Amino acid sequence: MRWRRESSLSSVVLSRPKCPASHTAHHFPLKDKGQNNGFVSLFLLLYGKRKSAGPTGSQLALYVEETRPLMVLISLFFFMLAVCGFPASSYFISVFCLRTTGSSGTIIIKCKDLRILQLDIPGMEECLNIASSIEALSSLESVAVMYPFFHRPRELSLKDPRGLSSPEQDYTQTERLWDRWRLSKVNSDFSVCPSYPDTLIVPSSIDDDTLIKAARFRQGGRFPVLCYCHHRNSMVIMRSSQPLTGANRKRCREDELLLQAVIDESEMGYVVDTRSAQQAQQARMTGGGFESKSCYQNWKRLHRHMERGKVLQESLIKLVEACGDPSHNMDRWLSKLENSKWLTHVHSALSTAGLVAECVERDSHSVLVHGSEGTDTTLLVTTVAQLILDPASRTFRGFLELLEKEWVQAGHPFQLRCARSAYSHARLRQECPSFLLLLDCVWQLWRQFPLALEFSEALLLRLAQEAYASDYGTFLCNNEQERGSFGVRENTHCLFQFLLNCAEREQYINPLYEPTDLAIWPSVQPQSLQLWTGLFLRWTEHAENMNEAREEIWTIVKEHTERTGPVETTHTPLKHCDTFSAMENLTDELTIL
Amino acid sequence: MEHIRTPKVENVRLIDRLTPRKSVVGTLYLSSTHTIFVENSDARKETWVLHSLVGSIERPPTTPSGSTLIIRCKNVQVYQLLLPQEKDCMDIQASLTRLSRPERYGELFCFSYQPNMDKEEREKAWRFLDLRAEFNRMGIPSNLWHITPANHEYRVCDTYPSELYVPKSATPAIIVGSAKFRSRGRLPVLSYFHRDTSAAVCRSSQPLSGFSARSPEDEQMLQAIMKSNPASEYMYVVDTRPKLNAVANRAAGKGYENEDHYTNIRLHFIGIENIHVMRNSQQKLIDVGDLRSPSMGDFLWGLENSGWLKHIKAVLDAGVFIAKAVAEEGVSVLVHCSDGWDRTAQACSVASVLLEPYYRTIKGLMVLIEKDWVSFGHKFSHRYAHLDGDPKEVSPVMDQFLECVWQLMEQFPCAFEFNERFLLQLHTHIHSCQYGNFICNSQKERRDLRICERTHSVWPHLWENRVEYLNPLYRSDHGQSKGVLRPITTPYCFKFWKAMYSPAERGVALRQSPSDCLTAVREESQQLEEELSSHQERLVQLVGRKTSTATRKRNGVTERPYRTIPKESELTSPQDYFACVSPAPRGESHAPSFTLPLKSPGTAATPKSSDPDDLSACSDIESGVADLSSHASSACDDTKDPDSDEAVYANA
After folding, report:
1. A91-143: pLDDT as tens digits
2. Cα–Cα distance, A268 to A317 (Å, whole number)
3. Which helix (H) or strand (E) holds B34?
């Protein structure tokens, strides 16, 4: 049993370092049960787990049998953590052993959800053992031993419906697509594009052979496909990866045909390239490129530089580091905030998405979005643009459907991008917080339009956590093909279904939601963009008062709904109007009598 | 009036600074008190700007399209006008410059402002706040503190109020002696008494200690203050200046208390910078808020460079220190700076807001301002340039206090009865001179000018409109509203006050305000509740006399002012994206809507039809994109296609 190095422990102190104001240290005396040979028993005594609970404490015994398979151990381990007050999903990402003096040691655990925990453990030996156990458990490589495969809550069944939508459903429900678009099964065995789902929506005038040829001309086979059709003017947003024009300006008839099929002869379309013109040029040296004016005559290219990959990851690391140190003075904090450039990335993401939305809604032109691989910034831009334009995607369910369509099914490589989060000291080449940046952009929208989105900040925070460490299979693997081969669909639960039906659903709902059919145009002035304190300062005392305010809002809204009768949403004065008119009728009758 | 050269200019363009194409043409009028712009459109929308609010007028070089006039107001609003004739522009500038800088008090707007109110009402309005009642409310034990008649007719100190609270054990000799040892006679007196711990917050100016001078009376005065809090063995003297400044003052015969001379005092320096530093800092901040489509980096750099948030933090830190000493240690505090009317007022009032839930209510904040600022001689007329005077005396001292309150509101959303609008309104009134409250520099000056007889008081006016200033999340029984506030002052808790310093964005914020929505929801709940009970009553009545033939008018269900669904038109215009809506008059969003959304949301017929903007928006296709590129400043290389393609070929 490689993870178990420690069998006997007593009086471990857990605290949150760097937050001296919170005196909510937990004490965990861990004891050995001795007589049970072959068992390790851990007694956890929790003191003051919640402030209100007081030091009553509760006891829990965990029997870990040496012969049990590893997965059980893992689930037990996380169960133990859950009992200690961590959500099971906050996997640790790095562990440091400190203070080697004397007989006790300190472990600092940095979690993927940006929390930092400190464990004071008597006995240096034990301390080191625990540290290496946690280290080993938190860096499992194989998908098949990941926790979602063992997460079996009683209220969920594997037979429950999985996923919220599929391209087929989308297509059949959207009538405006029917005459110009069709469903294609060309990728049913993932041979055309390994990162696309098996079904795609393409122009009806283009046959599968053309698609296959066009796919060869796009990086990773990600040929242009439909992702959104605007309800006002039937203009579309499409996405793809970069064309492989290369240094000697190759062209591909089929790719040109495919794009031309989207627009009429006389019309114009926009290609929004998420790289600067210079970067697009440079990409040709490595086989990539862009749609040149001469080959794609009706398409106008707009370049918007957005950072990706390592730059974005470093930006996140810098920001989290700045947020983690409350000892900075004002100047230092502001310069660190500026230096991290995170808000700059939020700014450029929002304005590029605004550009796409504006092309569609105001100019009535179709848009193709791509960067280089088409799996990061591209998805970010198309998702935010849809939120701006499409009222349906601003509902709770609609937003989850949008994420499923644009991120999970469209092949954002979650496993590569969201492996280690911000505290990782191993600089992973593929790590990149694109999804976190998306959530930040959505949060900015939510803050600027507090009534327009049906979901709450809590949902965004939950998603941020789930993307990095989840009990559910939704964000496992990098694309649909991998999910199929690992049996993710059959053996894990679906996060989105769970969120829609779970008991705490209410906390993910925005009590002030008022649906509007209109586009919500976010302001991209730097003055209007703010640091997402809910996420980055989540574990400071700062959050507490905000929660109270949130509760207060709920109280007011609930009082209101109580008075207006059993109405689900706040925007139906209709019902109480009914009750009153009924009463009026009654009074009228009485008057006549 | 003699200063107005051109009372009326036609065909003036009021330029929307964020989206120039949303500018409107109208007529500009100059009255003796206001600049008025009336739009030529059917709506005849009027914009009124008080002359006393005008801070500066700029006239950039004339262009072929006309002469531009930029009017910057003291409440950070900016109006940009385009006049067809250069001569008119110069005339207007000259007139406005003169009109916005009155030389005598008599020229101020408050002396000509005549709301419909008779003499009796006016006197009653001036009695709206009663400071003696306020000190009684604090529960000051009469065996320890009392009102001294020493400053009757302002004999001891002409910048203090005539009624002063001092320790009962301080004899007239001590009072006079102490006053002589303090700069401008501003001796230590009571500002706030904390009932729970019997600790007091006192205020004064700096002692005239120089390098060696001492005053036994002043030492006895501090001793008396300490003794008035029987439980404590020491007291704090908080000098809100940076220590270096305090030391430098000693060379001028001033300085700070020598701990060797005063028994049992603990001296503490806070380090709030002086008014000149603050003035420059705010100017830099306003420039940042005024930047047109800056990049994120520019903005954050500007914010850091202005140092404004650092100064706000210093003021709040001072308040937190005092509040902690009073509430947690139970120790009295004497606060002073140099003259004891700027930083001292800030520190005392911030501490009071933290300590006392009452000061977090609408009336309470009014009382606090009346007490700590108006009565204790904060130099309003000098600091906010009510008259044409020394520009070096101008400084945003009050602005900083209001911002501290705002920062606290951000941290404790449920703790304050008022909302941001109230603070902004106060800020405007402090500068506008429409009411007499904030005129002059001391109580004595106001008495000499007979302000109470010649002008009106703003407090009852604000109180009558308090519905607009209510924070829907406030509840007097809520945990946050009770007891002492303990704010966190780590730098990341401080935010840029957008509504104040980025007025162009103010309109954007108005589009969807959760607090307005909540207020409306709340009102509606209450109304429904009332209606329900009235209906029930009626029902009971009717059941009682079934044969009644009375034909009552139906008090229409439809007339119930239901909460308006957020105005669709406000959201619809795509211009909103890069442009900002000019702040709509607030009343609009509260206007009763007579059309109930009776159709189920699914049909959604209304929004589609109420979308006239859409067509007009689509008509200027190109500009939309052009707009965008100018805004997405990070996309530095938005190369137009033909060029870039040529470059490609050239490379290849």
Report:
1. 444 455 444 455 667 777 777 778 777 767 777 777 777 777 777 766 667 77
2. 41
3. strand B34-39
Amino acid at A459: L
Query: What does B521-583 look like in DSSP terms, one character per residue?
Result: HHHHHHHHHHHHHHHHHHHHHHHHTTT----PPP--GGGS-BPPPPPHHHHH-THHHHS-PPP
Q: What pLDDT does B43 receive?
A: 81
The pair of structure tokens assigned to A28 is 């965990």
Q: Provide DSSP, A309-365.
A: HHHHHHHHHHHHHHHT-TT--HHHHHHHHHHH-HHHHHHHHHHHHHHHHHHHHTS--
**What's the burial of A583, exposed, middle or buried (CB within 10 Å: 0-12/13-18/19+)?**
middle
* pTM of the predicted protein model: 0.82
Coil, strand or helix: which one is B319?
helix
ipTM: 0.80
pLDDT in tens, B30-69: 888 889 999 888 888 888 888 888 988 988 888 888 889 9
Q: What is the token pair recorded at B185?
A: 């006679």
Chain A / chain B CB contacts < 8 angstroms: 296
Q: B637-640, long-range: CB within 8 Å, 24+ apart, which pairs? A: B637/A276, B637/A277, B637/A278, B637/A303, B637/A305, B638/A277, B638/A302, B638/A303, B638/A304, B639/A277, B639/A303
The distance of A395 to chain B (nearest Cα, Å) reads 13
State pLDDT tens for residues B603-650: 333 333 333 333 333 333 333 333 333 333 333 333 333 333 333 333
- DSSP β-ladder status, A92-98 and A59-65: unpaired
How far apart are alpha carbons B36 and B99 in whole angstroms?
14
Using the Cβ of B300 and the Cβ atoms of chain A, whether some distance falls under 8 Å is answered with: yes
Token pair listed for B105: 């008090």
- Reported as type and span, the H/E element at residue A138 is helix A124-138
With beta carbons under 8 A apart, name residues in chain B contacting A328: 490-491
Is B414's CB within 8 Å of A581's CB? Answer: no
Min Cα distance B637 → chain A (Å) is 6
Instruction: Look at residues A160, A563, A176 and name the one whose alpha carbon lies nearest to residue A392.
Output: A176
H helices of B384-457, where?
397-411, 420-432, 443-448, 451-454
Whose CA is closest to B182, among B203, B167, B199, B161? B203
Which residues of B are marked as active site? 337
What does the alpha-carbon distance between residue B204 and residue B217 come to, in Å, rounded to a whole number? 14
- Tokens 């550009």 locate to A355
Q: Which candidate, B214, B1, B197, places its Cα nearest to that of B96?
A: B1
Q: How far apart are the first and last CA of chain A?
A: 87
Dihedral of CA atoms A439, A443, A444, A446 in degrees, nearest 10, equals: 140
Cβ <8 Å between A548 and B596:
no
Q: Which of A232, A514, A574 sits opposite B565 (nearest CB)?
A: A514
Ramachandran region, residue A395 (left: φ > 0; alpha: ψ -120 to 50; beta: rest): beta
Q: Can you give the C-alpha Rg of chain B in angstroms?
A: 29
Rounded to an integer, what distance in angstroms lies between the CA atom of residue A590 and that of residue B546? Answer: 6
Task: Of A33-47, A414-428, B164-178, give the range with the top mean pLDDT.
Answer: B164-178
Q: How many other C-beta atoms can be found within 10 angstroms of the C-beta atom of residue A556? A: 22
């989840």: which residue's tokens?
A470
SS3 of residue A131 by DSSP = helix
Spatial distance between the Cα atoms of A583 and A315, rounded to a whole number of angstroms: 62
For B588, counting Cβ atoms within 10 Å of its Cβ (0-12 exposed, 13-18 middle, 19+ buried), the class is exposed
Q: Is the dihedral of CA B451, B452, B454, B460 positive or negative?
A: positive
